[in-house]
Please model this.
Amino acid sequence: MTVIRVCNATLMVHSPCEIDAATKGAILELGDVAYIVAPGTYHHLHVPSAQYAFPDAETYICPGIERKRPELDFDWILADRPPEALGDVLDQVLVRGNKLIWEVAFYHRASKTLLLVDLIENFTDQTQNVNWVLKLWWKTVFHMLDNPKPAPEYQMGWKDKAAARKSLQRSLDWDFDKIVMAHGDLIETDAKERALAAWKKPLSAS
Ligand SMILES: [Fe+2]
Model:
């Protein structure tokens, strides 16, 4: 989960984890949550928990979630432009072209941060709360240890590569110097070069 300050006392919760009482209290110390964002088709599980904790917030979802979770209440389906209230703070693009997984990538202007969930994962020997079996799996099967790449579902699902390339290129045009993602260690050096390397396959395919 990432929490973004939209304006003075207004927050956006991106890819919420389960919001228990302690987490809710910590967030409310920062401000009031006005927006809950489910940014990817695999990142919606704890939206109801966030909605329960912050009942006045609006919920924005990545397209596809409305079919996977028809019972989920939401206010808006995200696309290539941020909602008007968020346009000064964020830019966004819906990354198309994959048959297994979709995600809306965000750019936080003030911190020059690319905000992802599954489009890049970055596991290293230092990654916490991951056991050695999983690290071995990532190293030997997916070659993703110390080698940031999209989630396996992305790697197996590229279909319309021209569409994928167009949307990924739009995120690469943003002036970011760090990457926050849902799985693995944050990328705080050489961010654009590492994104280019992670997306080499969809970017180079014809
Ligand atoms: Fe994920």
